[in-house]
Here is the input.
Amino acid sequence: MPRVFVTDGHWRKTVAVVRSLGSRGLEVTVGESSRIATSFFSKYCHRRVVYPSVRRHPQAFLAFLRQELEKRKYDVLIPMEEETILLLAKHSEEFKRLARLPVPCYHDLVKVRDKGWLLRHALKEGIPIPQTYFIEDIKDLEIAKEVIPPPWVIKPRVSSGAYGVAYVERAQELATKYTQVHNKFPFPLVQERIPQGGGAFGMAALLGEGGQLKALFVHKRLREYPVRGGPSTLRESVRHPQVEEFGLRLLRSLGWNGVAMVEFKVDPRDGIPKLMELNPRFWGSLALAIHAGVDFPYLLYKMAMGEEFDPVLEYELGKRCRWLLPGDILHFLSNPGRFHLKPSFFQFRGMAYDILSRDDPLPALGRFLTLFGLLWDGDLRRLLQRR
Here is the structure.
């Protein structure tokens, strides 16, 4: 039986990977730095291991993983979180001798994590971006005010999700909020805030050598938490030709090999999708793509194993998937228009779920128990804060 090692068992995207591969008959081992992790509770998790913290003890993590891979002879190693991917990509020559490691090269990952570098690259490739001022000196803030009218968004060059992002409505607040972000994330970007009404989209793709398209999927965000901007809590499978064109152009211009998800917001003023960011890994809403018919984890596994398969470019449209625990519940509680949501918060029929599953119910219990893990797990507290 083929063996796969999957890291970072806390996250819902990891649950999606474990279910995908385990249901295909693969033997899946899941690792995490805590004894309580959502994916540990899946019936498709064959083996559970607790390893040293990637963030606090990277060398100990590498030593543990090296020993694990040598002892059990895995076919494929799939890192899930950004810190884990970066660390293993940096040591890819060593670990690719122990298992197939389908991640982009370290230098490509470092480049695309920097939103400043990515946005400048996108401009060169003719990919629309929000009006952006690249601050090199705090004094430049006065120029930014003149170049970009309010409201503004202040974005760290390197961060995950909505962590570190600040919204500014009035000119007199810009310097204060910029300094607050700058103290944690040096020289963040100042961007125009794209008005609501155009929709937010994610284009996910799997690319092989030479930019060969192996799989494609687009979703539209319907709800998110925090309400003002954060991970999606409800999303729907759609097609959007412009988003697909811009997303693939960006990935191919980077010489991308592997999975990625490119995020866009459509500007209602001109109807054009504007690039927000690129996630160089599996994304939080991965379960929707799988439910709609694009099984990215299994396709990545097959590509890593050198197996040939026809590109998966068609999928079920209008499929909805929800991150209920606790994402959509938090959206409901914090949204002043909670009783006028479309679709309604209380609409449960016809929905798929990131974690809830009749076939595999126990990860929901694992997610609940994770709350108790916050009492002693500092790594988990920091990671959840950043999400």
